Amino acid sequence: MDQGLEPALLQGELKKQDEWAKAIIFDEDLNVITHKNCAATKEELGPYLKAYDVRDNTIGGGFILLGEHYEVHRWHPPLIYGRRGDADVGEGISLARGICKKLNGKKVYLLITYELPIVSARAVPQQINFYNQFIGELEKFDIKQQ
Fold first, then answer.
1. How far apart are CA 72 and CA 119, in angstroms?
2. I need a surface site. Which of 19, 118, 124, 142 has the fewest CB within 10 A?
3. Residues 56, 57, 58, 59: is their CA dihedral positive or negative?
């Protein structure tokens, strides 16, 4: 029986995601499981734990990753995403949260970025598939209670 997530396996799978510029997988205790081009600190990851609490706060404040600010324009738990830049040069960001049975039901986050010409319509389904295949199961949310 598997005991926890395997960082080396996950890192290998992240490297195969050649349309993602950056990616980081971390748990609800801010333990980084692995990353791809994204050595974010616990301090920087902390606000992502609250991203699902209040929609207006998340959209109003946006996301900060590696010192870059991203506008958040979609809040559809378990997915929250947005971008920075303009129509010619930009980078999207997407946060997914789910439950990992291999970590005794802990919440685990997958944060990705993707650069134009890759857009959310392409990257977010890849993120969903990656999460469900390698990490756990995306959470089910009752938006009416948010």
1. 14
2. 142
3. positive
